[in-house]
Amino acid sequence: MIDTINGAKASAIIYSIADTDKANQLKPYHYFEHLLIELSKHQDDTNLDFIDELLPWSKTLPKECLKTEQ
After folding, report:
1. 9 located within any domain
2. Does some domain include residue 21?
3. Which residues does residue 66 pair with via DSSP β-bridges, in sequence order?
4. Is 63 exposed, middle or buried (0-12, 13-18, 19+ CB in 10 A)?
5. At what angle do helices 28-41 and 5-23 cross, to 10 degrees?
6. Other CB atoms closer than 10 Å to residue 26's CB: what's the count?
7. Which of the two ends of the chain, N or C, has the fewest CB atoms closer than 10 A to its terminal CB?
8. How confident is residue 19, by pLDDT bands cut at 50, 70 and 90?
């Protein structure tokens, strides 16, 4: 099935993240790449303290995620 409730929810989550990173002056591709890499490192963790470092307004995001001033 192509049209599913779960697919719609997943799309809504992705679009929400994309709009939030744009609003925080991030490069969407690089931010998503960073999220996927970092989340895969913590998939077995029970401590979720690392999540704060992944938020779009975190001061610890890699420089390649940040848009440069023009």
Report:
1. no
2. no
3. 26
4. exposed
5. 120
6. 21
7. C
8. very high
DSSP one-letter string for 9-21: HHHHHHHHHHHHH
Q: What was the pLDDT predicted at 70?
A: 42
* pTM for the model: 0.81
Identify the domain containing residue 43 by its residue range: 27-61
pLDDT at 1: 56
d(CA 60, CA 52): 9
State how many domains the chain has: 1
38: left (phi over 0), alpha (psi -120 to 50) or beta: alpha
d(C-alpha 53, C-alpha 59), whole Å: 8
- Inter-residue contact 22 to 28 (CB < 8 Å): yes
Q: What is the reported pLDDT for 4?
A: 87
Residue 14 placed within a domain = no
Token representation of residue 37: 């890499």
